[in-house]
Every structure is written in C-alpha cells, then in structure tokens.
Amino acid sequence: LNTKLGGRNQALDDGAFKALLQGKPTMFMGCDVTHPAPGEQHKPSIASVVGSVDFMATCYAATLIQLPSREELVGKLQEAVVRHLKLFFKGTQTKPQRIVFYRDGVSETQFAQVRDREIIEIQRACSSLENGYKPEITFLAVLKRHNTRFFPMGRDGDRTGNCVPGTVIDRSVTIPGMSDFYLFAHAAIQGTSRPTHYCVLHDDSKFAVDAIQQITYQLCYTYAICTRSVSLVPPVYYAHRVADRARCHLVDMGIGFDEANSERVGYYGGGGSTSLRTAPGDPNRTTRVITINPILDTSMYFM
C-alpha cells in the first residue's frame, strides 16, 4: 500500500550507491514480454517497460506496449523510452547521464536481434529529445530459464547447502567472447537455488566487471514487497507484475487479433483512454485495451 501511494519502503545507502554509479544520475529500466496462453492466438502479446523516477531506483513508472501475438521483440520501444526519460526528469529535475536497461524474455539466439533493434531504439529515443543528448547505455539480457546449477565446496555454503547470497560466477562456465555472469542474489528457502544469468550486450559506461555485478546485486535488496534480497533484479520483477496486471485489463470480446495489420502496434502509457481495434473484414470482433487512470500514471499501481 505504501508503494502504491508513492512511498518508499527501503533504499540503499546513498553514498555507497552513488559511488558505484560514479556520481552520474542513472535511470534503471526493465522490460518483459508476456504471451497469451496456448490456444489463444487471437490475443495480443503485451510488453511492459518500467523505469525509475528517482535517484535511488526505488520508485518506478510503467508503460505498456501491445504487440502482435507471440512477438518477442518490442516494437515502439522508442516512444516508451522517451516517456520514461521525461518522467525521470520530472521526478528529479535532472536528465539521466546513464541508462541501465535489464531485458528479460530473450534467449541466447536472439541476442543479435535485440542488439540490432532495441538498443538502437533507445539511442534514437535519447537523440529525439535533444540534439547531442547521448547518455551512456548499458544493456543486459536476463536469463532465468536455464539448467545451470552451482554447489559450494566444503562448508562455504549456507545452512541449506546452497551458495550464500552475493555469490558470483563469472569464469570457466560463461559465454566466450561476452561479458556475462551468474548471480546468487537470494537465500534459498527450500531446495536448490538457481542463479540468474546476466549477459552484458552493450556497455557505453565501460563498467568494471565487479561494478556492474555489485550494482545488480545491491538492486536486489530494493524490491518493495520483500524484506530480503530477491533472485531477480527488481526492474525486471516490476515488469513482470505490470505485464500480469495488463493481462487482466484486456477485455476479450471474442475477436481475432489483427495479424495482417501487425505493423499497427498499439502503444499506451496511462492516458486514461480506451483503444479499440477491429479485425479486417469483421467490424464486430474487437479487442479493447483498458489503460490506467492518469492519476496513477507515475505511481507503482501494479504492486
């Protein structure tokens, strides 16, 4: 309830966190795509984008993008990033000098596509706001669905036999030719803990390997509804919640999604309006996307 009303439950140490970021105003963003259930091809996929609106990365605003069914790459990402840049400036009166973007939902085979499309969209969003405005962009892919497990040697683990929170593996089993690492950010309550795999696809900031790992790990302590660290970086967790909430806002009226006109990707960010789409040849079959009230546009309503 506190976060829904604009409050903050916890925050990292101000000085230490800013030292990791080298004193540069940084906007943290997360993105995820949710797809309809099997057998529901007429429903669209929903991409959710969240971005921090304060210096300490504790408050986030959300944007939703409607995609063609089963589409993984996010269209209209440029408009979403522009909106979040404006919201960050509104909340801090400062333009971000650095953007750290965590992208969930892509596999290793899609890294090249994401690098060639979505990173360029972010760069275009920045340059469209002001000539010469080029903040440093760090883009990380987040992989959770993998079968890699690690076990500590001897008595180096916790009471459950898992790796202690903060354990990082960044050699021997990582991807050759790429900066990536496995992070145990949480304490396992039961069973074998599974690390999160982070792959750095683009890094204008030239972060030291330890620095980006430390930033990611510390962010895992800022998840608003948990008093402990979580296994996944909070911007991605929030993007998951936004996408799940958006699925509840879709009112299915028995329509077929407009696959033939899929370039007309719908975009909405809380204008309080309702957008309608009509399938070609059948004006009675429509999908209605319900947006949030504009009063909640910059609040964490999805918590």
UniProtKB/TrEMBL annotation:
Pfam families: Piwi
GO molecular function, one term: nucleic acid binding
SMART domains: Piwi
InterPro entries given in the database record: Piwi, RNaseH-like_sf, RNaseH_sf
Domain Piwi: start-end pairs: 1-251
Name the record gives this protein: Piwi domain-containing protein
Organism: Coemansia thaxteri
